[in-house]
Amino acid sequence: MNNHFNLSRFALLFRKHTVEHYKTYLLSLGVLLGAMFLVMGTASYMAVSPMPATEQSIFFLFFLIGAGMVFSSTVFAQLGDKKKAIAFLTLPASQLEKYLVGWLYSFPIYLLLFIPSFYLIVYLVLSIDPRVGPEHEVINILTSEPPLHVLLTFYALFNALMLVGSAYFNKNHFIKTAFAGFVGILLLYNLNKQVVQAMLGRDLASATPFSSAYFMENDKRFDVGAYEGHESLMLLLLVVLALVSWVAAYFKIKEKQV
Amino acid sequence: MIEIENLSFGYSRKSLLFRNLNLKLQEGHIYGLLGKNGAGKSTLLKNMVGLVSPMEGSCQVNGFDSCKRQPAMLENLYFIPEEIYMPSLTAKQFVANTAPFYPFFDEDAFYRYLSEFEVPTHAVFSKMSFGQQKKAIIAFGLATNTSALIMDEPTNGLDIPSKVQFRRIIASALTENRCIIISTHQVRDLDSLIDTLVVVHNREIVLNESLDAISERLTFTTIPESEALQALYAEDALRGKQAILPNVMGNYSKVDMELLFNAITSGNTSVTGILQRPHYEQSL
Fold it and tell me: Which residue has the higher pLDDT, A5 or B13?
């Protein structure tokens, strides 16, 4: 018997998870559709002109990341409930298989459901706006700004961090993970600034991690940073951070004690 | 079957719950795990199941390290905790989605146990009373036919007729390939059910003996007040004293588990002294 991964056992686990959670997931999807319609509909109603594609892409970014983070924070929340955690951890499947089911739901399946849902709401909002003509532009996520691969990288990172939080904290997973994230960013920023200031031997106005620093002298701004290939390097770092966080979430589940 | 070697465990290093614990549990037995509240019965069971990891030593189930929680170990072990989670599924749906993880699951036996426990098969588990849920999960655990079935306070929440059914069904489900462990603080619930008694007290396993072996060494009887001094341990009863005496005549008496448990946990060393003495010394 393979104690790490077995496809038929994984399929059984996926089916079990789906049967036990599909009602909650469908309800969550309904809430998301309602929230998107309410927010985008209100924005469209209050605007002086029909919603342009640029504004649609802002909503796409906001809902993709926001709803995804909330959903991801619930995926392993059952580990915080002693009764559910015992049922989950003693089920005869490997910890990798259990982790992968949660990951599949919170990443690829979420994206597959979110994107058509978003388009559905966009079409609905535009269709009920009498000012919209036949030529009105609808967001194309493959060409809109920010590019899809950047969005997906950010979503991967936020998803991974939320998975770690949902496995680590026992209650209020979303709030605690978000708070820990803000504290982490604040610490990283300040630490980075101190290090760069020590390296350059002067005070800086700002020093963003993995980006540029600048200082003012005689009312002139001086930027110091590596600009060649900077964006790719940033993305690569985010991808690495997401991968590390996914692995951390897996080990947190593997080592979980009740 | 289940082998614990030099196990030390605590929720913090400063206050260990167990230190160098050793215990072997074999197939073909129903073990009663007794201990006072807070003695660590549930924690010991969690170590066996792999829900917590020992700080030192090991706990193996069928040769697998329990803390690794490998599928090969878990598919041959079923654990029923004191407080259970039941999904919003009917018995049929639960079997369809959970039973395939247990290769020796017997569906007919599951429905038979449910019927004996008078649990409706069409009802949704999460909407049942706690007692009904408990009976349903006990029925499922028995039907998995795992070699180890571990139950933590299984009779909590059961009414008196259900406790009688529980004893009858558990006794009938024991096979020579199966090890059943029942932890409880209600000693009388295990009456006429278990064959081996394990007592946890003061961070140690102070007793791990079959009832037959206990009965060979000790006599449980009622004696007049005047003979109380001869007893290893005695408690007031309606007529005289309920007492534990050394079994010098080799006569059989039914083990009064509650009395024995009280004797051990009250710090009476004469009772444990006799029980822990090697067999050859007994016969001298």
Answer: A5
Domain presence at residue A2: no
Q: Which residues of B touch A3 (CB under 8 A)?
A: 70-72
Give buried/exposed letters for A9-40 (b at 16+ CB in 10 A, else e).
bbebbbebbebbbeeebeebbeebeeebbeeb
ipTM of the complex as predicted: 0.90
Cβ neighbours of A9 in B, within 8 Å? 71, 101
* Residue pair B169/B239 in contact by the 8 Å Cβ criterion: no
Q: How far, in Å, CA of A170 to CA of A166, rounded?
A: 8
Q: How far apart are CA B84 and CA B56, in angstroms?
A: 29
Tell me the sheet residues that pair with B233.
B244
Locus of tokens 């009105």: A136
How far is B112 from chain A, CA to nearest CA, in Å?
23
Q: What does pLDDT average to over chain A?
A: 93
**What residue numbers bound the domain in which A216 lies?**
7-254
pLDDT given at position B284: 47
pLDDT (tens digit, 9 = 90+) per residue, A172-186? Answer: 999 999 999 999 999
Quick: pLDDT tens for B142-170.
999 999 999 999 999 899 999 999 999 99
The model's pTM is: 0.89
Instruction: Please give the CATH topology (third level) of the domain spanning B2-88+143-201.
Output: Rossmann fold (3.40.50)
Q: What is the pLDDT of residues B72-91, one digit of tens each?
A: 999 999 999 999 999 999 99
Q: Quick check: is A19 in a domain?
A: yes
Cβ-Cβ pairs closer than 8 A, A with B, add up to: 68
What gap in Å lies between CA B204 and CA B276, rounded to an integer?
Answer: 13
Q: Is B93 on the interface with A (CB under 8 A)?
A: yes
- Asked whether residue A24 is assigned to any structural domain, the reply reads yes
Strand order in the sheet with B179-184: B77-80, B148-152, B179-184, B29-35, B196-201, B204-210
Say yes or no: B278 contacts chain A, CB-CB below 8 A.
no
Percent of chain B at pLDDT above 90? Answer: 69
Q: Does residue A1 fall inside a structural domain?
A: no
Q: Phi and psi of A17, rounded to 5°?
A: -60, -45
What is the DSSP track for B175-205? -TT-EEEEEES-GGGGTTT-SEEEEEETTEE
Question: Looking at the predicted structure, is the pLDDT value of residue B239 above 90?
Answer: no
The residue among B12, B51, B55, B88 with the most chain A CBs within 10 A of its CB, best to mutate, is B51
Contact A83 B83 (CB under 8 A): yes
How many angstroms separate the CA of residue A68 from the nearest CA in chain B? Answer: 25
What is the count of structural domains for chain A? 1
Name the residue ranges covered by the structural domains of chain B.
2-88+143-201, 210-283
Q: Is B138 on the interface with A (CB under 8 A)?
A: no
